[in-house]
Design brief:
The complex is a heterodimer of chains A (about 110) and B (about 120).
Chain A: E1 3-6, E2 11-14, E3 19-21, E4 23-26, E5 32-38, E6 44-50, E7 56-59, E8 62-65, E9 75-77, E10 86-93, E11 102-103, E12 107-112
Parallel strand pairs in A: 2-12
Antiparallel strand pairs in A: 1-4, 3-9, 5-6, 5-10, 7-8, 8-9, 10-11, 10-12
Chain B: E1 5-7, E2 10-13, E3 19-24, E4 31-37, E5 43-50, E6 53-57, E7 65-68, E8 75-79, E9 88-95, E10 106-107, E11 111-115
Classes of the chains: A mainly beta (about 110), B mainly beta (about 120).
């Protein structure tokens, strides 16, 4: 079945550091890939998505590129802020019939001033 | 921007009691979902609902659980005879199209259920 593997956290960075959170997936066919963010005390918010190979999703300075050859969708940001501290979830969804969202375990990011 | 609204934000219940978690999906959405996240674990799919019936459910969604759209705006998750292991954050989501379509799902902010 479909699955998502994320790097374990927490990831601790200083403000303005470069961020990478690794995500790899296993799926049949051509899934859509997502990053969701969960700020403290809040729900899941869609951060960005990509629906086909080589697509780059971007939002709020975050980027992720759909790499089919390495089955990866790593999240990157060039300069993190304290306000980026949250839990980040990689997720995928198949593209045939009904397919539920399959989430990774989440990676907590802590950014210090 | 349209939101999915969930109430209450936090519910504490005694083991064995019934709870109803409420959600108001986005008004023009047709597909509704419940997911849950046990503390420190993955977000897991529970059930999807369309046209007043369950369209998909996971193995977690056993006879203890039921969903309903009682009045055309609310979407509820009922848990009968709650167990300690039902303690989790429960997320409601809705979408325009099956499996999220091009716009994906919109999630609510969640209801934290604590069973004591």
């Amino acid at each position: 079945g479909n699955s998502v593997t994320q790097m374990e956290g927490p990831v601790t960075l200083s403000e303005e550091a470069f961020l990478t959170i690794n995500c790899t997936y296993t799926a049949t066919g051509y899934p859509s890939l997502f990053w969701y963010v969960q700020y403290p005390g809040e729900g899941l918010q869609l951060l960005l998505k990509a629906t086909k190979a080589d697509d780059k999703g971007s939002n709020k300075g975050f980027e992720a590129t759909y790499r089919k050859e390495t089955t990866s969708f790593h999240l990157e940001k060039g300069s993190v802020q304290v306000s980026d501290s949250a839990v980040y979830f990689c997720a995928l969804k198949g593209n045939t019939g009904f397919q539920k969202l399959v989430f990774g375990t989440g990676t907590r990011l802590l950014v210090s001033p | 921007e349209p939101e999915v609204t969930q109430t209450p934000s936090h519910q504490v219940t005694q083991m064995g009691q019934e709870v109803i978690l409420r959600c108001v999906p986005i008004s023009n959405h047709l597909y509704f979902y419940w997911y849950r996240q046990i503390l420190g674990q993955k977000v897991e799919f529970l059930v999807s609902f369309y046209n007043n019936e369950i369209s998909e459910k996971s193995e977690i969604f056993d006879d203890q659980f039921s969903v309903e759209r009682p009045d055309g705006s609310n979407f509820t998750l009922k848990i009968r005879s709650t167990k300690l292991e039902d303690s989790a954050m429960y997320f409601c989501a809705s979408s325009e199209a099956r499996s999220g379509g091009s716009h994906g799902y919109t999630f609510g902010s969640g209801t934290r259920l604590t069973v004591v």
